[in-house]
Amino acid sequence: MSEADKIALVPILPGVLQKAEPSAKRVLADMVQDALALARTKVQPQNIPALPACTSADLESWCQNGESYCKGDGVPQDFVEAAKWFRKAAERGLASAQWNLAECYYDGEGVNQDYAEALKWFRKAAEQGHAASQATLGVCYSNGNGVPQADAEAVTWFRKAAEQGYAGGQYSLGSVYATGRGVEKDEAEALIWFHKAAKGDVLYQYLLGERYYAGDGVPQDYAEARKWFHKAAKQGNASAQSKLAWCYDKGQDVPLDYAEAVKWYRKAAEQGNVSAQNNLGRYYEHGHGVEQDYEESVKWYQKAAQQGNAWAQNKLAQCYYYGRGIPQDYEEAVKWWRTAAEPGEAWGQYNLGVCYENGHGVPQNFAEAVKWYRKAAEQGNASAQENLGACYADGRAAIDIENAVDAYQYVKLAEEHGHERAVKTAAVIKMLLSPAGFQEAERRYHRLRSTKGLDAPRKID
User: At 399, which helix (H) or strand (E)?
Assistant: First the structure.
């Protein structure tokens, strides 16, 4: 009962007003009027805004709007606008919208990346039985994204999704059985779930092929790998097409067949697969399965290089350096070798060193040449090791007591490649070293020699 109702029920006894003093009469009369007014007005409940009523069709429509903004389907792509529509439906309980909003938070698209917020929405959808959310919630627990890492909890959610027939959950459950994370390792059980995932999903057909190819969680079997690559490739999966081409390229469980390889490389390359683009460039460069065509080779190397493929960046630089399929341009060659070298690609580092040593595309700078040779040499690049030894032998790289042990191994490599001054330089280094230091230098040299061939050419490659 409201306060107004309680006041309205207080009895006014007969004669009370008549017997009261005049001043009291006025007070009592005012009290009675206030009580009657309150009773008529009633006390209204606090004004709490409610979500407007909507139908399930409204929710689905809002979610579809979000998807359209995500994809730029009929509207300009706008992740912020997409997140707004997903939230509108998610807050009213639509599981698919909750999943999409969670994805926005997980990837930082349209909202600030926030794993905890992503986890909240994945959980809401997962608890409604949304299989993709269940599988992704498992990934969050497996990786510790937005929640403490917990393998057993990850398995619980992977299993929920897998038992609904969701391929992503089935594959993830297979993965944990293959590795023994959160469950006892069981490769037979892993294989069951991998095959369930691959049964009707092209992505997991390709991934199962990769597992057979590498022997990862399943016995290595090139024939079985090729079978799954072929199944996925026929459905247009670019990664599978590229890997199937590689099987024909290298003759793995099939006769070497450049024509078949180039067919599948082309299919994948035209979809933007960077590995296929690089390999198609290689095929045109060497005339494998196609007529040799340097200009076509450059075209495909450029596509792969622009996507960040380090080997393609090296090959494109080489084309510019030699003017093969494109006008010779040392500066452009240096640009692409630097692009490959700076993230750590050894051939890019070596070739950039050559450019600095010879003054091709950059001012001649022996210190820079030595710097890049050293970076490549430390990664085991034999050409860089030999060139670095030559720099020490020619006096272009300083030798002192601090680096003498390190320098010795490279100078000895240069000696074996016939560098005239290397013999004398090695003798000078020996004089700088103590007997123990020289023994260590010899040990390093023999270890280096045993792991690297002696046919490294001192040229752009």
Answer: none
Spell out a b/e string for 301-336, using b for 16 or more CB atoms within 10 Å of the CB, else e.
bbbbbeeebbbbbbbbbbbbbeeebbeeebebbbeb
pLDDT at 40: 42
The residue among 170, 181, 157, 236 whose CA lies nearest residue 204 is: 170
> What is the per-residue pLDDT for 4?
36
390 in Cβ contact with 373 (< 8 Å)? no
Residues (pLDDT < 50) of the chain are: 1-48, 453-461
Give me 407's structure tokens: 């320098």
Phi-psi region of 236 (alpha: psi -120 to 50; beta: other; left: phi over 0): left
pLDDT at 14: 35
What are the sequence ranges of the domains in the chain? 3-41, 380-461
The torsion angles phi and psi of 396, rounded to 5 degrees, stand at -85, -10
pTM > 0.85: yes or no: no
The first and second tokens of residue 226, run together, are 């090729």
> DSSP letters along 219-245, please?
---HHHHHHHHHHHHHTT-HHHHHHHH
Residues 137, 157: Cα–Cα separation, whole Å:
7
- According to the model, what pLDDT value does residue 253 have? 87
The secondary structure of residue 45, as a DSSP letter, is P
Degrees (nearest 5) of the Cα angle 305, 308, 312?
35
Angle between helices 366-377 and 382-394 (to 10 degrees): 140
- Written as six digits, the tokens of 95 are 């599981």
Q: How many whole angstroms separate alpha carbon 155 and alpha carbon 165? A: 15
Rounded Cα distance between 325 and 335, Å, is: 17
Helix ranges (H only) for 215-345 are 222-234, 238-250, 258-269, 274-286, 294-306, 310-322, 330-341
